[in-house]
Structure of DUF6158 family protein:
Amino acid sequence: MTESENQRRGIEAARLSEQELIRELENIHRSRHDTLLHGAPAALAAHTTRMAELEEEYLRRHPDRPVSAGRTRAGARARTHTESDGPAH
């Protein structure tokens, strides 16, 4: 990667400290919606590539991260069934 490419894309995710990685993830997720709605196609493609790189690095470092039960298929199904049952009396 050339120096100018590195400046545009940022530091390789694998070279970031844990604190830097978290900060980069927070920033990229915060800017995603605006990039999707208003970014040029090249900006959106670069954003997508960088976001994937950062997320993959996070998952590589944290393969056993805690997963919320509500963020699983079973949890989503349980939530849908509860919501469709109506209010409890």
Remarks:
- The radius of gyration is 18 Å.
